[in-house]
Design a protein that fits this description.
CATH class of the largest domain: Alpha Beta
Structural class: alpha/beta
CATH superfamily of the largest domain: FAD/NAD(P)-binding domain
Order of helices and strands: EHEEEHEHEEHHHHHHHHEHEEEEEHHHE
Distance between the termini: 54 Å
Number of helices: 15
Radius of gyration: 23 Å
Largest sheet: 4 strands, parallel
Strand content: 15-25%
Length: about 350
């Protein structure tokens, strides 16, 4: 009989518990969430008039093994009918704006956008891709995303497009983020093919494979760029929580902040404010600094490594417009701002109810 404790009831902890309760080797799963709700970043406000505002992510990309796994889980949870897909051909997928030098610029899209010079860039992006083939492979085991892209595609592309992308996706600074960790496909393309362009054309080596279920297969057939849920992204953690409760193998605990983790003769002791829980194994889905504060002193090297991981605060602003005040291109777009000097940035994505 194996008991596993999952620390954190955000989408990471809930997803881990979902897969654990399907394993015949696991007898019991205990989820410990410090707040009064499950879901973490996936948090939606639903109004009586049908409007939905997201406090966190507004959609999920279906690509790759992770994307297929997620859609397989959504299908299993019975959320398939609630999916709101956005295809690559949709205007919302094509409209990407970057705010540079007090001006709003539409990012190049399609073949014509690659062939001609589109402000704020000083040359066609296709030229950067063609010249990239001639760049020698890097010798370092890892480097920052900014350094990697500057070396292979030019500093301008790194300063404007990639910097904005990293702030939108990772809420981080591309000058500090690891290319090997954040963009392993690009790193592997250079390592195996010596070029990003050749890697995209010929493949960058073996990748994780997850067989697509019916919903994931539909996303491939219809070329989904991303998807959301009709009642908001919080529907996903709500459905997972309900699934876990009905499984009979998972205990869900709210307002259960972990005070300390200590090794026991067999497994671990987890100290809470109102008691102690025993588990054979622990899976942590806590932020790095939160985990570092509850580990035993014997884990000092790990504690230090966790404390060295920097974090930022992310604010999501939803703006509601009545009627068709905004041009259609702006109503269905995302706008990003690269790093100014000093490094304070507002990375915005407009979400309007029209």
């Amino acid at each position: 009989m194996t008991t596993i404790a999952v620390l954190g009831g955000g989408i990471g902890g809930l997803a881990a518990s979902y897969y654990l309760c399907k394993s015949p080797q696991v007898t019991k799963v205990i989820v410990l969430e410090s707040s009064s709700r499950f879901g973490g970043w996936l948090w939606s406000t639903r109004r009586s008039d049908g409007a939905v505002f997201e406090h966190g992510p507004r959609g999920i990309r279906p690509a790759g093994a992770v994307g297929h796994n997620t859609l397989n889980m959504v299908d299993d949870l019975g959320l398939g009918e609630d999916i709101l897909p956005v295809s690559y051909s949709h205007v919302a997928s094509k409209n990407r704006y970057v705010y540079v030098n007090k001006q709003l610029h539409r990012m190049p899209s399609g073949l014509s956008g690659l062939l001609r010079t589109v402000p704020p860039f000083s040359r066609p992006l296709l030229l950067s891709l063609a010249l990239e083939i001639l760049v020698k492979k890097g010798k370092e085991d890892d480097e920052s995303i900014h350094s990697f892209v500057s070396r292979r595609l030019g500093k301008e592309l790194a300063d404007i497009a990639v910097d904005s992308l990293c702030r939108g996706v990772f809420a981080g600074d591309c000058r500090k983020l690891s290319v090997r960790s954040c963009f392993p496909v690009l790193y592997n393309a250079e390592q195996r093919r010596g070029s990003l362009t050749l890697g995209m054309l010929l493949g960058s080596g073996p990748t994780a494979v997850s067989p697509p279920g019916p919903l994931a297969q539909k996303s491939l057939t219809e070329s989904w760029a991303q998807w959301s849920l009709s009642r908001g992204m919080e529907s996903l953690p709500e459905s997972i929580s309900e699934y876990l409760q009905q499984s009979g193998r998972v205990q869900l605990h709210r307002d259960a902040a972990v005070q300390q983790i200590t090794p026991a003769a067999s497994g671990w002791k987890i100290n809470l404010e109102d008691g102690v829980i025993s588990a054979d194994h622990i899976i942590s889905a806590l932020p790095a600094k939160a985990l570092s504060s509850v580990l035993p002193p014997s884990c000092q090297p790990l504690i230090q490594s966790l404390q060295d991981i920097s974090t930022v605060t992310v604010a999501v602003v939803n703006l509601e417009y009545e009627g068709y005040i905004l041009p259609v291109a702006v109503r269905t777009s995302q706008t990003h701002t690269p790093t100014p000097t000093p490094t304070h940035t507002l990375d915005g994505a407009l979400q309007g109810r029209l």
